[in-house]
Amino acid sequence: MLSPSQERIIRWLGRFPRDLSQAWDVPREVSLPGLSEAMGVVRSALHAPLKELVELDLLESRLAHVSGGGARRRNVYHLSAAGWDHLAELPADENPAGAAAKRGILSGNAEPLIAIIGRDEVMAEVIKSVEESGCAMVTGLPGIGKTSLLRAVAEELMDAGKDIAWARCTRFDDSTALFSGAFDGREPPTDPDATVDWLVRKIGRGVLIIDELQEIHSRHSGAILSLINEIIVRGPNLIVACRAPSPLKSPEPILIGELAEESALALLGDEIDAELGVKIIASLGGHPLALKLHDAEADYDTIGQDISQFIERTVLDALPADCIDGLDELAAQPLPVGAERLRNDAAIGVLDDHALLRWSDEDASAVELQHLVRQVRREMWDEETARRVHAAAAERWAEHPESQARFVEFHHRLQAGDEDVAAFITLHADDLGNCDDGALAALLHDGIDKRPEVDALWYLAAKTALDRGEGEVVEELFAQMPNSDSAPALALRSRQALQQGRREAADALQEEAAATAPPDDRIRIVISHLARILDDRLPHGMPAISGAEIKRRLGEVKLAEIGADTRQHALVAIATIQHRLALLEQDYSAAEKVRQQLGALTDESDPLLTEMALCAALAVAKWDTPDWHRESEAMRRHLTSSPPLRALSLRLTLVEKIAEHDAGEARKLLKGAGEGLPAGPTARRLQAKLWYWKGVLNSADGLEYWREAIHRYRAAECAHAAQELTQKMHQMLR
């Protein structure tokens, strides 16, 4: 006769295919840690039941590689032939999968569902709060089980037919990253009002769960809390969880306390001696994480109820010496990471066996330390240890070539006190620019706190805030910046003035920056400034400065002062501006002359020349003529093979020509547009135009799209376009 826990083990392992017993890679769910979570008991409670099932020949045990768990092979379990026979004789589950007539869908980055004990009442309270008021706020100590409880709540809500969007906060999330993660990559607007409208529409009758709110960086917490409070006012179903105390004024928090003794004993499992169980609970209380980390061999007469001290003195100090480096490497990581990224990936299995890890349901290989464990371990480091750990991690991440790796390397270099931070920023400016700008903004905030003497950190922080359209943050940075009159700072101030619509001030600051900058930088500053001016208009409109003035300023660019390579790039950039201006003024002969001059500098097969010719031909062609169909089809073919930035520019050129004649076809062209764009000013201006056309072609949500377009135009230093669109929106509302 098997025990209830043994029958549950049999049922659980019966979910996996028979041939898994021969596989090289197996899921974590068939290892001891996975079984422990499935059963809802501590790992030590499974040792005896598993051993007996193996002895009864109902289970087979072997060493295998666990997916995402590092290189070390680990003990895993499968049903034997006799085990499969026994499973077939068990009565059917009372709640078979898919019993609900219409089950809701879970999106986002939720953690795996695990069995929980003793939380029925608080779960019911959370669900009742959502049903009655539309909102629930859950708080509690670190490790008390907030995430596990909400995951179980989500399961019940899905059984009731509700869709769940799960947003798990990390240190570097801004609102865009947070809510994009919740809705499976669908990027929300960046304008606060438009974001709220978008969220209300996306949530619908479902429920948005925001977990780990305390993890949000102070750089972004104000904006995110403001959005959450607005969502609460507007009424969509929302559940928020964070460590006590709650940062929200309402609703009244639902506090998750320690487990009652009966539930705590159940968590420890049937196999533990009752007297020892009572002693463990008397020492550790009913704190679930502490109970899961307990060591049956420890002296619980001397262990107090300070959870942090327990983790340090009983859990971490008892780890094998050869996994300490792995523990420290993982504790230093700013974000969940795949084991293959770590130098000490062999430690992953040991740490998992000790219940010290958190795994992602979205990415099975992404792992991090339990947050409380991570905090305790970091507090154990002295200054020299912290520097050494981060320096070693920086070296490891330097081995990975992608832009995201530069972000993590940058984090570790800052934490290690690297003296060459400014040189790193200069060398990897493009890579850092391609990183998530919200994460970069938070990282730079930390960097300035640690190294306020490094000018490059201030400049990059101001640039990032400008790129994001965060006017107040930019003002604060300039007010504190040590060398605010340098050429880089003046160029940034010029951009700020453009965002504010102070064009004369922007021109003056740009000239001052150019006058003090090296020749190569001076040319780049001037040309970039003129490109922004030309783009500062709505489709079918004209820039605030006349074409004659733009031509005059282009004519003043002194190319003789710069080297040959830079001169070539400058000539191409100038020709691009001249050609666009000629098409805007319908001076097609001038446009052709520009293309001829550019052809003498580059290969005639240069894609830029091809795109210029396509745009000119499309501008001349009359709607619905053979010329139009030929040229528009040529444009469509070309954009499919163009890099993302150029493809979007060509796509929007087509939309501008088609929209007034065939709105349906224009909407098709916009579908999926703007994905995978690199960072930079051109991308920001194109994104603003994209949101403008979304508003034109989607009347139901037009105001939401136009609010976002206005925000993006301002962030791209196109204040004239933002003002024009604001006027259009006000006219629409009258």
Structural notes for this entry:
The chain folds into 6 domains: 4-89, Orthogonal Bundle (Arc Repressor Mutant, subunit A), CATH 1.10.10; 106-256, 3-Layer(aba) Sandwich (Rossmann fold); 261-318, no CATH class; 321-467, Arc Repressor Mutant, subunit A, CATH 1.10.10; 518-620; 622-734, Serine Threonine Protein Phosphatase 5, Tetratricopeptide repeat (Alpha Horseshoe), CATH 1.25.40. It starts with a helix and ends with a helix. Helix 14 (324-332) packs across helix 16, helix 21 (437-450) runs antiparallel to helix 22 (455-467) and helix 32 (644-658) runs parallel beside helix 34 (681-697). By secondary structure, it is α/β, with parallel strands linked by helices. Helices cover 58% and strands 7% of the residues. The chain is elongated, with a radius of gyration of 30 Å.
SSE order and pairing:
Blueprint (H helix, E strand, L loop, with lengths): L3 H10 L11 E2 L5 H8 L4 H12 L3 E8 L7 E6 L1 H9 L16 E3 L11 H14 L1 E6 L5 H14 L4 E5 L6 H8 L9 H12 L3 E5 L6 H17 L2 E7 L10 E3 L4 H8 L5 H11 L3 H5 L14 H9 L8 H9 L4 E2 L8 H7 L3 E3 L6 E4 L1 H10 L2 H15 L5 H13 L5 H7 L1 H5 L3 H14 L4 H13 L3 H10 L6 H13 L3 H14 L2 H17 L11 H9 L8 H21 L3 H14 L5 H14 L5 H15 L3 H15 L4 H8 L10 H17 L4 H14 L3 H15 L1
Parallel strand pairs: 1-2, 4-6, 5-8, 5-9, 6-7, 7-8
Antiparallel strand pairs: 2-3, 10-12, 11-12
Helix pairs in contact: 5-6, 8-9, 8-35, 10-11, 13-16, 14-16, 14-17, 17-18, 18-21, 19-22, 21-22, 22-23, 22-24, 24-25, 25-26, 26-28, 28-29, 28-30, 29-30, 30-31, 30-32, 31-32, 32-33, 32-34, 33-34, 34-35, 35-36
